[in-house]
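Title: Prediction job returns without error message
Component: structure pipeline
Severity: low
Priority: P3
Assignee: unassigned

Description:
Job completed but the reporter wants confirmation the result is attached to the right record. Sequence as submitted:
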Amino acid sequence: MSPSMNAVAPRLATLPAGLPRETIGALADVSLRNEMVSLGPILPDDVGPVFLWLNDAQAARLDLAFRPLDWASYMAWLADLAKNPSRVFFVVRDALEPRLLGFLTLSSIHPVHRSAELGIRIGGEAQRGRGLGKAALRLGLSYAFDHLNLNRVQLTVFADNTRAIRAYEAVGFEHEGRMRHAAFIDGQWTDVLVMAALRPGSKPTLVASGGQILEPAGRA
């Protein structure tokens, strides 16, 4: 975590000041949740912490080329969330107390292909590596399949981001391809992996040239 982010980390872990603890706790209780985290709507006092996380240069290098996001563009992006049916934005909170932990997004939601792209960020380095991301991913996939009726959720991840790759594999994402030298990060090229999770019970049908139906590799 960068020095500037270390300075604001205590503020990122505090409860939103604009709403009472009881209200935020009740919201977490009725949001999508499991034993570790809940997924719910962004609240007014979440706006600042999310803005800082999006501008965290050290965290950004794990999943995209860093480019500072200015406040005006951020406000326009937030305004678009309410009217854009192709995107869903969740904040991730602790299931036991309504602390803000990060965010999860579903974007490029396509009603015909029943597909979407997933992105996730656990905001503070101290919260990473504790299974919170995997817990949030499971909720995100459940929402995609059980509420949006999607059939496929995909993502891209840098090939050297082993912690994220292990988390994606643990919740059901499978490797589908590798784009060589697809991203230029910190002065060097890195490969980008394509991973996807299919709706439970759904799998592609492979047919050989002779008409025989084949079972996809790695599936029972």
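Comment from assignee: result matches the submitted record. The helical segments are 3-12, 21-30, 47-54, 57-60, 71-81, 132-146, 162-170.
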